[in-house]
Amino acid sequence: MSIAIGATAPDFQALTTQGHIRFHEWIGKSWCVLFSHPKDFTPVCTTELGAMARLKPAFDKRGVKVIGLSVDPVASHTRWAVDIAETQGFAPNYPLIEDPDLTIAKLYGMLPADADGAALVRTAKDNATARSVFVINPDKTIMLTLTYPMTTGRDFNEILRVVDSLQLTARHQVATPANWRQGEDVIIVPAVSDAEAREKFPAGWTAPRPYLRIVAQPR
């Protein structure tokens, strides 16, 4: 069963390319993006790991820790990193978790609990659903889940946009509209009455409908 938004991110211990971690302890008081892969040396995932490495400073700026997962062992991840650096211009600059017995993939609902076999005897197609992104807040709550097909590379700028929205809406009683970008107008959530909104947003707002109150992004 997949993990729902609002659930606590399952904790685990694992070996990564940057050493052994206990997941919740490693996150600490940061936000986290965990993104997974069905197999090392797969073409789309190679481009994704390089793209995330290129964008990592933007996640760092937002206080977001990045960590990847692929089912193969760390030794395989280390060899793959050479290919990623040579073909994408950036090697992974964040830890990459090994999951050779598929324990974490199953724990996070990316593979069924009764999936047979270890990573070494399974193909990428066998693990096709291990292509998820989880955004986790400092309370270790799942705030976003996305799962992509193997043929569609992930848009990490979109994940960065979602992080901006999640962090903004965690601080203020607002929501972000379709296609929102940092600095654009936002929506006052229905739980805030007009009287409360006048205190929170003294400059006022526009309301094309009573339930749709648009206000400048709070700082």
What's the short story on this structure?
This protein has 219 residues and is of the alpha+beta class.
What integer value in Å does the Rg equal? 19 Å
Average of per-residue pLDDT values? 96
- The total number of structural domains is 2
CATH superfamily of the largest domain, called what? Answer: Glutaredoxin
Query: Which CATH top level class of the largest domain fits?
Result: Alpha Beta
Instruction: Report the end-to-end length measured between terminal Cα atoms.
Output: 38 Å
Order of helices and strands: EEHEHEHEHEEHEEHEE
Q: How many helices in DSSP terms?
A: 6
CATH topology of the largest domain, by name, is: Glutaredoxin
The helix content is 25-40%
Spatial ordering of strands, largest sheet: 5-4-3-6-7
How does this model look, in words?
Helix content is 31%, strand content 22%. It has six helices and eleven strands. The strands form three sheets. A five-stranded mixed β-sheet has the order 5-4-3-6-7, with helices on one face. The mean pLDDT is 96.
Write the layout of secondary structure elements.
Elements lengths: L12 E4 L2 E4 H5 L3 E7 L5 H19 L2 E7 L3 H15 L7 E3 L4 H5 L24 E5 L5 E6 L8 H16 L2 E2 L10 E3 L5 H7 L5 E4 L2 E4 L4
Parallel strand pairs: 3-4, 4-5
Antiparallel strand pairs: 1-2, 3-6, 6-7, 8-9, 9-11, 10-11
List keywords for this structure.
alpha+beta, 2 domains, five-stranded mixed beta sheet, Glutaredoxin, 22% strand, Antioxidant, Horf6, Chain A, domain 2
